[in-house]
Specification:
GO molecular function: transferase activity
Strand order of the largest sheet: 2-1-3-4
Keywords: Transferase
Protein name: Glutathione S-transferase C-terminal domain-containing protein
Shape: globular
Helix content: 40-55%
Number of domains: 2
Domain GST C-terminal: 89-208
Structural class: alpha+beta
Pfam families: GST_C_3 (PF14497)
CATH topology of the largest domain: Glutathione S-transferase Yfyf (Class Pi), Chain A, domain 2
C-alpha cells in the first residue's frame, strides 16, 4: 500500500507533493475541493482531519498525520535518495526542522493565513504584508551564500518554501529587492518535477473555479 495525501489544488499540501517527487517517494493523491471538503473518491476531509485542513496524510497502517511540516518530515524519512533524505543523526537535521518551522509559522500561518482570509479587512491584510520584508531579508541573507536552505541540495524545507512562492504573487508580496531570494525562487520553481506539479495544480484549480 501507499500513503494517501489529501490534496487540494495550490494548497499547502502541494509542498508535500514537491517533496515526494524530489525524494522519489510514492504517494497516492486524494484530490479534494477545499471549500466543500469533499474528496473526489468519496467521503470528506473531515473523515480524516476534524479541522478539515491539509496537509493530511494517511499512512499504510491507518495512522493520520496532519500539519504540512510533519508530512514533509515523514516524506523525507521515507526517501532512499541520499541527496534528499536527512537522518536525525545528521548535523543538518535540526536545521531542516528549523526551516520547516520558519516556513510554517513565519510565512504560512502568520502571513498567508491572514492575507487569504476572506473576512480580513484590506487594512489588516496590508499590515500583515508589512511583516514580509523582515522575513524576506532574513532569507535573502541566508541564501546569498548557499543555493538551498540546507546547503547544496534541495530538501523538504525547500519544498515548503517553494510552495510559498507559488502563491506569493497572488498574496501581493513583492521580493524583487531581494536578489538572492528572487534567484532562489526562480531556480526552485524551474525544477522540472516542481514545474510539472504546478502545471497539474493550475489545471485542477481552473476546473474548480
Amino acid at each position: 500500500m501507499t500513503a494517501v495525501l489529501m490534496h487540494a489544488p495550490k494548497a499547502c499540501s502541494l509542498a508535500a507533493r514537491f517533496a515526494a517527487a524530489e525524494g522519489d517517494v510514492a504517494l497516492d493523491t486524494a484530490w479534494l475541493n477545499l471549500r466543500t471538503k469533499e474528496l473526489e473518491r468519496g467521503g470528506s476531509l473531515y473523515d480524516f482531519n476534524p479541522l478539515g485542513q491539509v496537509s493530511t496524510l494517511k499512512l499504510d497502517d491507518g495512522t493520520i498525520l496532519t500539519e504540512t511540516s510533519v508530512a514533509l518530515l515523514w516524506i523525507q524519512t521515507q526517501s532512499e535518495n541520499a541527496d534528499f533524505r536527512i537522518d536525525p543523526s545528521d548535523p543538518r537535521y535540526f536545521q531542516l526542522v528549523r526551516w520547516l518551522g520558519f516556513c510554517a509559522t513565519e510565512l504560512h500561518k502568520q502571513i498567508f493565513r491572514v492575507v487569504f482570509y476572506g473576512e480580513a479587512t484590506d487594512e489588516v491584510k496590508d499590515r500583515i504584508r508589512e511583516l514580509a520584508p523582515q522575513r524576506f531579508g532574513l532569507l535573502n541573507r541566508h541564501l546569498a551564500s548557499t543555493p538551498y536552505l540546507l546547503g547544496d541540495r534541495f530538501s523538504a524545507a525547500d519544498a515548503y518554501l517553494a510552495w510559498f512562492f507559488v502563491l506569493s504573487d497572488k498574496a501581493g508580496l513583492t521580493h524583487g529587492s531581494y536578489p538572492a531570494l528572487t534567484f532562489y525562487r526562480d531556480r526552485v520553481l524551474s525544477r522540472p518535477k516542481i514545474r510539472e506539479l504546478i502545471a497539474i495544480d493550475e489545471k485542477r484549480y481552473a476546473e474548480l473555479s
